C-alpha cells in the first residue's frame, strides 16, 4: 500500500512514469494561458488575512461540495466567521474520497504551507493556525505565491471595454518578473440576447470615444480595442458558448438584429444564432489578423438554480454539463470561417466528456501547415479536471491526433493557490506515457520522451501562442 499523497509515487504507478515526472516534468515552468485571477490583486500584491479568504473565497468547486454535504449557505458564501467556514470545509473534505478537490487541496497544503498531514474535522485547528501563520509572512503575498509556483506568464480574462489599467502598471513594474498579459473575453459583446446588451454597446462607445449606431460601428470599435490589447501583449481570446453553431445571415439581416437588440426588442432564437455566427466569424478574422489563438469553451448550462442566481449571481456553483454539441455545427462553423478569413489558431474545450473524440476528429479536418497542432483539443476542463478526465482526454487525443503537439495544462481558476494542478496534470500525463512505454506501445527512447514531456508541460504553449519567453 502506498503512503497517502506520497511525493514520489502519487499518481505514478510505473518506473518510466516516475522517471519522466521527476527528471523532466517536475521542474518545468508554468505558462498559465487561461485563468481568472485578478490583475488588480497582482498589482497590489494582495495579502490574505486567513486561509478561508484565499482558499474558499470565490471557489465554487468547494462551495458545491459543501452544499452537497448539507452545509448551510451561511458557511459557504454567507456571513459566518472565517474560522467556522473553514471548519465546515474541513468536515466536508474528509468525506470527499475520490474527488480531485480532495487531492488538489492536500497538494496545496503541502506545496504552499508545508503540511503533509490530513485535513479533517479534528485537524482543522492545527491547519488553520499553520496556514495563517504562513500567510502572515512576507513571502505569502500574491506575487510571491506566483513566484513559488515557478510561473513565467499569466493570461488574465478581460472584457474589450476594460481599461487594462492594472496590466499597464504591471508592465511598467521592473520588480515583478512574471509577465501578466490580458486575454480577450468578449462575452458581453456576444450576448445579444442578454438584457444589458444595449447598455454594454453604449459603454463600449464611451470607452472608444465614438458613436455606435450599427453593427459595422460595433465591429470597428471592437477592432480598436483588439489593437490596444495586442499592444499590451495579448495573444489569445476566449469565448463561452452554449454550443458552436453556424447559422448564416446576410449583412443586412445582422444589422437589423443588432438594431433590435440595442433597442431592447425581443429576438427570436434563430436571430440570436445568426448574430452569434456573424460575431464569431468577425472575431475569428480579427484573430487571424493579429495572430491570436481563439479559445472556445462550450457545453455548459449556467445558472440553473434561479433562486440562488437571484441571491448570489453567476459563477457561484450552479452550472452543469450541457450535452448535445452537434458535430455538424462545429465542423460547418470551422469550414465557414476557413473559407472566409482563414482559421486562426483554435483551441476547443467541451464540458461534455462525450465530445472529446468528436472534437479530435473534427479538428483534424482543418489542421494546416506550416503550424503543428494549429487546432487543439483543450485540456480536460472543469468537471473533467480529474485523473480520469485527464487520462481520457489525452488518450483520445493520442488516438486521433499528434499528442506531442498538445499545449497542455491551464488553471482556469480564480485562486492564487491553484498552481499545483499543473503538478497533478504532469503526474497523470507521465504515468500515462509510462504505461504506454511499459506496454511496448512506444519505445523507451529517453530523448524522445523527454522532448514530448517538456514540450507538453511548457514549450508547446510558448511556441503556440508566441509568448516572449525562452524555451526549456
Output the strand order for the largest sheet: 4-5-8-9
Distance between the termini: 36 Å
Mean of residue pLDDT?
97
Order of SSEs, N→C?
HEHHHHHHHEHEHHHEHHEEHEHEHEHHH
Apparent shape: globular
Number of helices: 20
The strand count comes to 9
Rg over alpha carbons: 23 Å
How much of the sequence lies in strands comes to: 5-15%
The percentage helix is: 40-55%
Could you give a short account of the major beta sheet? 4 strands, parallel
Structural class: alpha/beta
Task: Note poorly predicted spans.
Answer: none
State the main characteristics.
472 residues; alpha/beta; four-stranded parallel beta sheet; three-stranded parallel beta sheet; 8% strand; globular
